[in-house]
Amino acid sequence: MSELDLLYTEIEDDLRASVRSLLAARCDPAAVVAMYDGDRSLVDDLWSSLAADLGLAGLLVPEERGGQGASAREAAVVLEELGLSMAPVPFLTSSVIATTLLLHTRSGLLGAVAAGERTAALAVPWSTAVSDALPALRLSGELVTGSVTSVAGALEADVLLVPVATPTGVAVYAVEAAAASVAPVVSLDMTRQLADVSFDSAPGTLVLAEAEAEAAIRDAIGAGASLLASEQLGVARWCLDTTVAYLKERRQFGRVLGGFQALKHRLADLYTGVESAAAAARYAAAALAEDGFDVPVAAAVAQAYCSDLAVAAAEEAVQLHAGIGMTWEHPAHLYLKRAKSDQIALGTPGGHRVRLAALVDLPR
After folding, report:
1. Interatomic CA distance for residues 314 and 320, integer angstroms
2. Per-residue pLDDT tens for 264-295?
3. What pTM value is reported for the model?
4. Which of 52, 58, 88, 90 is nearest to 71 (CA)?
5. d(Cα 91, Cα 82) in Å, to the nearest integer?
6. d(CA 139, CA 363)
7. CA 168 to CA 163: how far, in whole Å?
């Protein structure tokens, strides 16, 4: 296998510039903060712009199936920018996780999702790791019954991809969100609000039979974990850059705060951490794009490291902004909440370390 190139390409830089420009114009931090008061008006218009206008909804879908024909590398760049802007859109849940699952199917739903006409979500708890037992709801004929808690992306989804138990294993059925009960729950990160989803004899359509379903679900969760690291990198980079800029301007005791040696050391440590996170996240995305043999190892390393690093960066941002960092008006709290929420999404750092140890034959 050839050595992976972790440098950003010209195409990736152009994509970053387009996404950053759109988010700067349409993702007002004040509107993001307003989501904590129940105002979700930002979501639909912003997602429509990203999904349809920029074509990001079908980024991972081959051109012959109605998508952009890009790879996980480009998706990683998008997620970095979404993390930097704290954009409350279902790109990860629909355009990465649900789309990766639908790529295993011949369902016409994939084309609608790729075109940005429909949004999908995988109906599993947001904390589900790739090696965890999968929740499987009951099936009677073509009717789905049961419930799933803490589903990410359900509030934005038009259709839910539901694992159901069959006599011979697990299958996946597509259920219209309108046919389910989707109850929002108060979440630590309201920019990716979770929901409890219940089905009471809801009509479903088979999209993956038992022979392929479980492997496809785990593939989708694994892809989500690999690329979640890029979102965490974006969160951490915003925290570092914003804090450095603040400490260059804020004065105390007649001096710029950034000139104090103790603060310089903390920022230097954070900088090396962010750069290490960049290497781990880029490698996970590049390995996934090449479908390399070490995708599971790269994903476990990236998640084990980036999850904790994003939290540390957000905590430093809040602390080093002092009083203003503790206010509701300053966006630092958004990044801390996203970092803490992402820390347990798709598996905890400890869980990824346990899985990594097994993958590389380290004793417990």
Report:
1. 10
2. 888 899 999 999 999 999 999 999 999 878 99
3. 0.94
4. 58
5. 9
6. 41
7. 13
